Amino acid sequence: MSETLVTVVGNVATQPMLKNTVSGVPMARFRLATTERRWDRVADRWTDGHTSFFTVWAYRMLGENLAASLGVGEPVIVQGRLRVLERDDKREEKGQISVTVAIEAVAVGHDLSRGTAAFRRVVRARPELVEPQPQKLRQQEDAAPDEVPEPVPG
């Protein structure tokens, strides 16, 4: 069965928090608020309806970039996997179940219908792409300042 993907438009309700999982994977979390707007025919104006809150989780590079880019109150669009989490609530009477709705984000961006943004690409060196330094060059770096290292054949 395929996973449920949702797209939610709303505002950042809490400051994104970046942490690492036990295995060292970067993970960011924030609360997303979305309020329905509807036209009130009697009052002849737009009115706010119910506000829903979602916990948004983002991992790896998305989590790092999200934490560095978003602030409270900013309009965003979040797409991700919908998760409904149930657990026994210790604060309530026995048998009470607490339900949390979360989104494991696949993509997050500013809502450009409500403002502008400037994109900055993040460039990070991937260790597996960096060539190890040849032994000859390492020997040259370790040479004393008054010594002249041997030329390395090209």
UniProtKB/TrEMBL annotation:
Region (Disordered): 130-154
A family per Pfam: SSB
Recorded GO MF terms: DNA binding
Keywords from the UniProt entry: DNA-binding
Compositional bias per record (Acidic residues), positions renumbered to this chain: 143-154
Domain of life: Bacteria
SUPFAM superfamilies: Nucleic acid-binding proteins
CDD domains per the UniProt record, alphabetical: SSB_OBF
Alphabetical list of PROSITE patterns matching this protein: SSB (PS50935)
Signal sequence coordinates: none
Keyword check for Transmembrane helix: no
Claim: Phosphoprotein is one of the keywords in the record: no
Protein name according to UniProt: Single-stranded DNA-binding protein
Source organism of the structure: Streptomyces humicola
